[in-house]
Amino acid sequence: MIHSEDKIAIIGLGYVGLPLAVEFAKKFFVIGFDINKQRIKELNIGLDKTREVENAHLKSVLTTDLKASTGLYITDDAATLANTNIYIITVPTPTDALNKPVFTPLIKASETVGKVMSKEAIVIYESTVYPGATEEVCVPILETCSGLEYNKDFFAGYSPERINPGDKEHTVTKILKVTSGSTPEIAQRVNELYLKVITAGTHLAPSIKVAEAAKVIENSQRDINIAFVNELSKIFRLLDIDTKAVLEAAGTKWNFLNFSPGLVGGHCIGVDPYYLAQKAIESGYNPEIILAGRKMNDSMGSYVATETVKMMIKKGATIKGAKVLVLGVTFKENCPDIRNSRVIDIVKELETYDINIDVYDPWASPEEVKHEYGFDLISNFDNLSSGYDGVIMAVAHQEFLDVDLTKLKLETGVIFDVKSLLPIDTIDARL
Q1: Which of 232, 227, 391 is nearest to 308 (CA)?
Q2: Which of 16, 277, 311, 368 has a CA positioned 20 to 30 A from the CA of residue 322?
Q3: Cα–Cα dist 105/86, whole Å
Q4: What pLDDT is attached to residue 395?
Q5: Looking at residue 271, what is its pLDDT?
Q6: 3-state secondary structure string, the chain?
Q7: 48 vs 32, 56, 182, 257, 366, CA distance in Å?
Q8: How far, in Å, CA of 110 to CA of 141, rounded?
Q9: How far apart are CA 430 and CA 304, in angstroms?
């Protein structure tokens, strides 16, 4: 049974961990732990730069009392984690330059918990992994660091995150949660724990592996469907057919799936399929459809850049030294997250033509972009020059939808609407 005296530790206070910690803190004492000292400093004054939690909401649950019955105590001191009995790990699981899974954050988090946890502890993982990773990769680390025996002295659970960054409608409590545990009894306890805060309800999976697999195929399925419409976009462009019009017509059938072409980045859809693919390859199976979908979606940034250059040439532009404005650098609209943004592929491809590129994004942190991708953002909209040979709306931030892009370009300049949101008579191309 879950009791009010249970104390929870959330390991990783990013887009997933912080909203969850805030909700649990309303009913339990929660320690929020992160290794990023600057992040800890900001959160302790009630500032969430990810914008996933309203600052006032965050401040309302903060506490500095380690003996409090409820509230959120935020720290980078791992020693304080010994005061808890339920650990929820929400660290990122990225891929490397070769698209291989990187378990380093998960391993480090498991080591941190293993060193402080006591008997009867429950360690729940939310990070996206391939089926089997929790018990094959993480649990042995917990055993080694703690000296405790799995399913005798401590237990595990898996409840995959379903956070959609920037979405203020489908927030953590409103998204049905898949849960699981390492024994039937622990599975019930994990499920009961999440039911305390998830108003949308839960689905108790029969095993940790099933829960892991469910998460990784959610995003793989979306990835494959988006790859299909991205390929359609390339075909229809050759046939001089408007893809959006085709999809709207096809969408009148009751069972047509509604997907739109575009850049597929971020920390979920653009990454998770590689975890499933890696496990499949290790098991002796070559996942053709999954990898084909990834290849198609990873090609879209360079495709947009190349098509923009072709249109510029047709309008008489001298490509070397031309000016192109890219609007948006985050991986999705109305969100500051730049991780695995495929807009970078557009910028890199344009650079191969010796084009002068300006990038403007009111949501992204200039410091993070400089550190991660090596270029400077235009600081504000008023600093944009006019007379661009090309304008690419790569991310549909609300701020961009109210801008007359035609005023930013030369009369012979071109506009490529990657998100297919602008009126067709105001642009030159869209996906």
Answers
A1: 391
A2: 368
A3: 19
A4: 95
A5: 86
A6: CCCCCCEEEEECCCCCHHHHHHHHCCCCEEEEECCCHHHHHHHCCCCCCCCCCCHHHHHHHECCCCCCCCEEEEECCHHHHHHCCEEEECCCCCECCCCCECCHHHHHHHHHHHHHCCCCCEEEECCCCCCCHHHHHHHHHHHHHHCCCECCCEEEEECCCCCCCCCCCCCHHHCCEEECECCHHHHHHHHHHHHCCCCCCEEECCCHHHHHHHHHHHHHHHHHHHHHHHHHHHHHHHCCCCHHHHHHHHCCCCCCCCCCCCCCCCCCCCCHHHHHHHHHHHCCCCCHHHHHHHHHHHCHHHHHHHHHHHHHHHCCCCCCCCEEEEECCCCCCCCCCCCCCCHHHHHHHHHCCCCEEEEECCCCCHHHHHHHHCCCCECCHHHCCCCEEEEEECCCCHHHHCCCHHHCEEEEEEEEECCCCCCHHHCCEEC
A7: 13, 10, 34, 35, 17
A8: 6
A9: 9
- Tokens for 88? 């929820």
User: Shortest CA distance to 333 belongs to which of 287, 399, 261, 402?
Assistant: 399
In this prediction, the residues of the chain whose per-residue pLDDT falls under 70 are 4
Q: What is the pLDDT of residue 270?
A: 81
* pLDDT score at 201: 96
Q: Are 73 and 64 in contact (CB under 8 A)?
A: yes
| pLDDT, tens digit, 9 for 90 and up, residues 291-312 | 999 999 999 999 999 999 999 9
Q: Which strand ranges, in their side-by-side order, compose the sheet holding 155-158?
A: 71-75, 29-33, 7-11, 86-89, 122-125, 155-158
